[in-house]
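User: Please fill in residues for this 109-position structure.
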C-alpha cells in the first residue's frame, strides 16, 4: 500500500486494519506539507480516485470490503491532513499522524 508501512501482517483483514489505525502503524511516505502532486502519486494503485479542490479520495478494494484514504490540502496545494476510512473504524474514519516535511528533504520524496 502507498502509505509506506514497514511490516504489516496480512493474516486477516481485521489484523491489517488494526495495524493501520494504530499510532505505530502510520507510514512514513506521507508527510505534512508535501506537495499535492507527490502525495497523490503515492496512490496510483487505488481502484477509485476522486479529486476535488481541497481533497482527494482514494479507494482500495479487498476481498471483504473497501478501504478509503482521504487527503486534505490547503489553498497552496500542500497536504494538511490524511484520514483512513472504513466501516469498522470508530466514527468511520481515523486521522493519520503525519510527520512534518523536512526542509532539507530531497525533491524525490
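Assistant: Residues filled in for all 109 positions:
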Amino acid at each position: 500500500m502507498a502509505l509506506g508501512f514497514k511490516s504489516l501482517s496480512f493474516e486477516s483483514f481485521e489484523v491489517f486494519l488494526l495495524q493501520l489505525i494504530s499510532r505505530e502503524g502510520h507510514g512514513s511516505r506521507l508527510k505534512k506539507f508535501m506537495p499535492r502532486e507527490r502525495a497523490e502519486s503515492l496512490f496510483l494503485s487505488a481502484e477509485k480516485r476522486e479529486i476535488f479542490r481541497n481533497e482527494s479520495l482514494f479507494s482500495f478494494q479487498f476481498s471483504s470490503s473497501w478501504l478509503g484514504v482521504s487527503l486534505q490540502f490547503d489553498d497552496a496545494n500542500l497536504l494538511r491532513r490524511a484520514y483512513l476510512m472504513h466501516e469498522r473504524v470508530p466514527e468511520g474514519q481515523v486521522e493519520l499522524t503525519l510527520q512534518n516535511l523536512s526542509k532539507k528533504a530531497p525533491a524525490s520524496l
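For context: Residues 13-21 form the longest helix (9 residues).
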